[in-house]
Write a structure and sequence with these properties.
Four copies of one chain form a homotetramer. Chain A is an alpha+beta fold. Chain A is built from twelve helices and seven strands. Chains in contact: A-B, A-D, B-C, C-D.
Chain lengths: 303, 303, 303, 303
């Protein structure tokens, strides 16, 4: 059985099962999304690709954008960035603030909110026009000039983003935010507001499955060693408090967002992106988790 | 350059560098070991193998034995065991007790002490002669009838193992230890007391690089899916609070012990075991970490 | 209105209201007690005294005994004991283990279990026949030779006391338990097993309302300054996580036990003991809290 | 020996001893204060009063102002305010954020920063001109129209007050801040910026030693029962993580500020205010603690 058949099979199976969980209520603007959207896009480093369902519909990629901001910051700063952010999983959400306190403002990894906020701060210090330059980077790695922030979603996030404001100021109290909190958070909320389709996300991050090279023109975006390390962090930290479970069941580096998207990377092989807005209790797409578990069970994982 | 040359090269490089860290002082009996021991053993699923330095000297494998107890319990109980132990990394050591409390006595994963103690409890409930049956299992997967507990080391561990006694009774207060605490801890201390050489460890766990089959006779020890999952847990939880760092730098499933050994698995390829008793501040072998980082940088990781 | 009238009035009022809460289920032997017992005993330093309801019935005094063990240890060691135990409230129960870890095995105060266990350890080191000498002390301060341990209750506590075993060993792992854990816990469980009536408790601790002197013969049990300090610790730490609430509502130093007793001290005036087995969610007697709140509202507190 | 002699004696003793600790570095504007200032003011409910040293010099009262904001909020809201703030001590500073999380945004008590911020939020909701009305209240209870905010100090606090911004937004994320964070924090920073002398503070809070009545004109500021409860909260929570120690050593309700002031209340007797800018490791005035301990040892405490 080939990939297309396997994917078709799993897509149909899951589509016919009950769709559990809840659409996020954290961000007012996202709470109105149709919970029955279900899209999958698969693309290999040899340019084979298949899409299923709503794979061309744009949705709010939310934390998946943190893979791009990490890539850009790592490309610029190199290993110096690990003085300001760790690479360890965070245990439970519950402990995030304690750990920031115990670790004196050094977030555990770049994918928890605290870490992604520090990444924004790094980019602001390093780039001439931080938000515009970041967008240019995303457009370049995606061959997709249409990528843009969604002011409506960013505004919606800001209106209820008190915990992120708290995190940013808490880190700043330890000296690990160098720029103005408002500027850092403005970038952060914009970053999370980007809307892309499964196909676009899959294309955008295909370089992580291709040793750091863009598949379309073979240009090196980030070197091979750093590519492996970004994948490694996605493996241990990419799915919030469910990263261990995701590694256990799916066995691929991945990154989820509360918009219901999950990106998974099989190094040297392919990317696969699933989108279904209903989230499980850990904030990860219910159908996305299920789809990817079945997929690697029927094909292969890295373990 | 082939594996032998690469390994030789790295071995010589590290041997000539300063040997940092401290031999464990937790267990009196281990504190007297010669800190300059340095052994490496590498074995592929095709039976190629190379050893360097003290690779034939036995040392206390400590927590590495937890890979064997987990394998046996998982083989017997299957997924039912995940009702009693999680598969998430634990964040910091600091939080372990809080998390046990928040999670009502369910340890975060089978490799932290709390989880390994629950695995012992499971084996006691499931086996007729728990300790003897466990030894038989280890001897069988190793083709090595000489494996045995070290009463001297076990006694030494018990004499200072108050924190483990605390953990076991704390879990029991939540009802997640079913047998008598003393019996469970006696098994646990014995488990950790086993002494093996790099070569013996490498042989013993080669089935995890071979889809669950023993290389010597191709017999299935544990099925393919469970094998992948054990590797996945080693990836996210195998090196205490440094599991993220190990994934980031080395990129292979691994398990360390405070005796100074580290086992790493490259699925479908090989196992590699390094032993050097001096530990870094996280309790992992200083030279072991360094060796494996250089090794996967010059060869390949799974990411 | 005099004390007798006020007390009578409150007793009748509460007796006619619904009796809420749950009898403790922690200790099997206590769970069978009649939940409708309701006793009060009041005694002034001038030997005026009144009793209501079941004030002559013996019940398990549990943690109230910790006031006696603290008094004896403080009498012997003086301020040296504060190197091994603090005098700060513990915040929430939830944090007790974290705080023991952060404070390297120094319990926050002598009334949380951890602290009371260290007090037992101190007494074992200081006394020739620790348990017998402690009983003699209690009998002496009470003029009551009938006080004794209840082997049945102690055994019952031991059978489910896994958390206390955990605490004791956890503290021992930091070096702050000097004697054998089993001996310390045996003393601790015996201490908590003592059975006394409201009248007996009231007599026993009347010296704390009398500047450290026994009222019957004016003998100094513990000096005036230490007496004030024991009262101060009762004020901030005597009612578990509800110590602030008790200070706020009742305004007297107090100590509760999960047998449903509460002892309160009005320095220079009187002691009052209430017993009613149903506990609120914090583990303190529902009617006891209510009685004492009404009592100091109608009479006076120290604030 | 009368009060004047005792106070003179203690003042001289301490003045001649080494002055330990550090002036606060949290607030730039305060770090330049002369560390050798040392003032004491004592005033009874019968209008006897004595002052020593710099008792007429104004200093930044900081957290002592929280006693006034609590009094005003409690006067207005009554017991309804305990739905939004607790009355329990907080354990350690370390846990403050964990507890806010565990308690879903309900601060443990009105004297930790989190609680005082919620009190500001309550006053903003309840008062027409919150900041002005609060000043009027303080001037009224003090018979002192000169009390005012210090814009210079408030600005200085704001410039480094990232942790307070974090706290306020964290609480707001739980819904327990109703007004705009900036407005709440602006009030909070102003509140803490007030400058008063020992004499002025002593006069201002004398009503707490006088069953809620102003001594100058016998007007009831807050009723007797609430007065006792404010004193009770000062007893268990008034000196940060050293509240237990203060109760233990001094035995009076008290409130300290990082400007180096400590206010203590002896109900029905007097107030006493000590000011010396050098702080111990818990953030309380080194000489202030010492002075009050000697004072109650030579006179009396409430225990």
């Amino acid at each position: 059985m080939n990939y297309r058949e396997i994917l078709t099979d799993i897509y149909e199976t899951i589509k016919n099962e009950e769709n559990k969980g809840q659409v996020t209520s954290f961000i007012p603007e996202l709470s109105g999304v149709n919970p029955e959207h279900f899209g999958v896009f698969f693309k290999t480093v040899n340019n084979d690709e298949f899409g299923f369902g709503s794979f061309n519909d744009k949705f709010s990629i939310q934390s998946i954008a943190k893979v791009a901001s990490l890539s850009l910051a790592y490309k610029i700063l190199g290993k110096r960035m690990w003085k300001r952010i760790g690479v360890e999983p965070s245990g439970t959400a519950f402990n995030s603030l304690v750990q920031l306190e115990a670790d004196k403002g050094i977030p555990r990894n770049p994918f928890i909110n605290a870490g992604a906020i520090v990444v924004c701060d790094i980019l602001i210090s390093q780039l001439d026009n931080p938000q515009q330059d970041f967008l240019s980077f995303m457009r370049y790695i995606s061959d997709n000039p249409s990528i843009k922030f969604s002011p409506k979603i960013a505004k919606s996030e800001k209106s209820t983003g008190f915990r992120n404001i708290a995190l940013c100021n808490f880190i700043k109290s330890f000296g690990n935010i160098k720029n103005d909190s408002e500027e850092v958070l403005d970038f952060y909320f914009n970053l999370c507001s980007i809307e892309m389709s499964c196909r676009e996300i899959s294309n955008c991050f295909l370089f992580l499955a291709n040793q750091g090279r863009k598949v379309s023109d073979n240009k090196q975006i980030i070197n091979k060693s750093r590519t492996k390390r970004i994948n490694a962090i996605m493996q241990t930290c990419g799915l919030y408090d469910e990263s261990g479970e995701f590694t256990f069941k799916v066995g691929l580096p991945g990154k989820s967002g509360i918009g219901g998207g999950i990106l998974a990377i099989h190094p040297n092989k392919h990317t696969i992106v699933v989108w279904s807005p209903k989230l499980n209790s850990k904030g990860n797409s219910y159908r996305g988790m299920k789809f990817l578990e079945l997929f690697t069970t029927k094909t292969s994982s890295i373990f």
